[in-house]
Amino acid sequence: MKKVTNFFSGSSQEVREMLTQKMLQASDNLQFEEAGRIKSIIDNLNLALFKQNVENENYGDIDIFNYSIREDKICFDALFYLNGKLSFKDYVVLDYDHQDISDLFKSYVMQIYQKNIVPKNIVVPEGIETEDLELLYPDKIDNSSKKYQVLLDLAKKNAEETLRMTLLENDSFTNKQEKILEQLQKLLRLPTFPYHIEMFDVANIYDEYVTGGMVVYKNGYPSKNDFRKYNIDIQHQDDYHRMQDMTYRRYQKDIFHPTNLPDLIIMDGGKIQVSAVNSQLEILDLKIPVIGLVKDDHHKTNRLLN
């Protein structure tokens, strides 16, 4: 209770830090429901603080937009006032690679008003190109009035806080992924850290339509741009030769590009699948560790084969 009292008496940063650390600790312990619950508390306290800060002003029906950039992320934040009271808020965090901020801003505002009523006034920060927005929402856009500066500052502060927490969560998740990969390296006695992992499987319908798939992970994250699908049309109708065909096609093109090769290959299968891949790696004179995921009678992985 004392911490909550401190929050409303001006010591909000201390309370945020305490709750954020508890949230990250829960996430590290894989207690994702608890981490989500704490995050909801933080969001609700922030909303309550915003209401407290502006409750003595009468701003009418107005929506406030602002943004913040940190590292490779951008956050757009919106505060919605009805009859002068903060009714709700919204935000989005996007990857940022030096795109045009005004274009991103316009897209966010348009997305908001696809599902919400347009108010009497829409306030955006200085520096945002508003020509397109003014065409979409005539006589609504304000990016120069000082009357709403306190609200713009609140929206920006909220965006900054959202980015700070997002990056903390990302760092926590990345550290957790790296620890898991380090454990995998020790378990399998891999010569290098398994930053780049490729996984293969084959599917077929009555041996007529046979396809293979490759899924790629880099530093514990799916690398979807590297995913591949292989149509397999060979004379031999068995998993051994199908795996040979798919993996040879994958790795022969990168014999002279070692940076494109994985640190670990994972096969959906046992001895047959692992042997098939190793036979092709030997032909190509490549030394890449290969393991298989051996399934039980219920099609669940019950052991690793290397």
UniProtKB/TrEMBL annotation:
Transmembrane segments: none annotated. One of its GO terms (biological process) is DNA damage response. It comes from the Eukaryota. One of its GO terms (molecular function) is excinuclease ABC activity. InterPro entries: UVR_dom_sf, UvrABC_protein_C, UvrC_RNase_H_dom, UvrC_RNase_H_dom_sf. Residues 64-277 form the UvrC family homology region profile domain. This is UvrC family homology region profile domain-containing protein. The lineage of its organism: Eukaryota, Metazoa, Ecdysozoa, Arthropoda, Hexapoda.
